[in-house]
Give the backbone structure.
Amino acid sequence: MVQGYRSFYKINYMNKMNFRISATTAMLCMIFSVGCEAPQKEITMPETDLNSEHLIPMPSKMTATNSGFRLDQYTRIETNPNNEGLEEVAVYLTDKITEKTGLRLETNTSDGQKNDAVIYLTQQEGKSWPNDEAYTLSIKKDSLILEAATPKAAFWGVQTIRQLIPEISNDTLTEHAIWPIATGIIEDHPNFEYRGSMLDVARHFFSVEDVKKYIDLLAYYKINVLHLHLTDDQGWRIEIKSWPKLTEIGGSTEVGGEAGGFYTQEEYKDIVAYAADRFMTIVPEIDMPGHTNAASVSYPILDGTGKTLQLYQGTRVGFSTFNTRKDTVYAFIDDVVRELSAISPGPYFHIGGDESHATKKSDYVYFVNKVEKIVRKYGKKMIGWDEIATADMDSNSIFQFWASEENTKTAISKGMKVILSPAKKAYLDMQYDTLSKHGLHWAAYIPVDTAYVWSPETYVDQIPKDMILGVEAPLWSETISNIEELEYLAFPRIIGYSELSWSLEENRDWENFRVRLANQTPFLDMMDVKYYASPKIDWVKSNRTYKEIQKD
Ligand code: TNX
């Protein structure tokens, strides 16, 4: 398990003091053999209300029992020894508790005392769960039991636990600090299996470190797919060993003329592994037959426009195309899909397929049909933007809706499942309003409420619910070039998309969501996220700023 994103959270002074007090108590216990459980004397916990916690995405069902689970320095984390894969999840939880509270809890040690509060992770395969990401949390005063269908379900349960931990401790209940967790029962499972965001690393390149930070932020909200738009007219961002000029030439610049960049295969594998540790799938996208200027400049043999080629640093779309009738082009694509599939353990390979305005219609259909077979040959399910529905698609391929209802109907008639990314609602690169610092507005202005108030189940008429794989919010990067700008466009809207893809329709409500969103500030500040503080939200002020946390 990869260590947490930040390691600067140190045990604060209070906790050090507490440790000294309890160490002294332990010494006295040993000498006099009395009062060994002194710190664990009956503590009256404050009243709580699980239903007023600010969980996002909203769980399927909650029942409050109004007491408090005692999270403190004596709390132990244990996992069912018969379950594989849970210990890693428990270690992740331990690290996250340290980041937030400074507590360093023991995981799977037997030296706790009988009155210590316990967090217990267990997998229940036999139970009839709604799906394999379902979990329940049973929170009582002294035990917090996370029962999960699978380790990934446990990981989502852990995100809920993280969100339930108060930002600051209660230091008045006893002589040491306690973070009381609201008691009750949470039964939870996702509405859709595909809960994604896309990051365009082609128009502007983002470093491995930036991508990892985005992954960490997404995981907290139970998002489980990061689609990387790896190639476009302006840049080719993934090393392909059999075609080295793609990155040497095609990776050398970006929109605005900056230096660009690319991921070596080792770096890409590092991203994939980091995501996998967070039960997140990376979907690689090689956009073609249009959006291919960077590839064709690197290897002019691929080009189908016949025009003079040069590196492109602007933001126009639709001017490039591969030569769809040349065998070399398919030999090239075979190499790219083979190399990239070998380092992408997820089930999907995205071929783009959008805005191929420079490709003749018949050539486009011929191309997509051939590329779909290549993708299947390497064991992947093909995803494409909504134009691919016009080709002879296999029902196993997946259709990503961004604009055309007609294409969606065609896709459904071909038996293809749908990912919903309506540009007017879910495009993270659309400006919030006319004052937005970054972003475009060709599809719409998308303020925080518009981003949330729509329903994936009914947005496009007549898609049967079981044909919707999920929701993805794409972040195109023509107007953003660093992590702060990325965060400005993605946050807070992506938090709403997490709820649209995880929570059941009957549990989604803007007025209720708005309050929960306002309370995400302690997390966003702790993670140093430069979110857009939309005036539509009454943001709650965090108790500690990022700088103060660093100083602790
Ligand atoms: C459309 S929607 C695109 C991208 C642009 C984006 C800008 C789609 C599949 N393609 O090439 O970056 O608009 O908003």
In short: Residues 317, 354-355, 385, 402, 423, 427, 429, 440, 476, 478 surround TNX (CB under 6 Å).
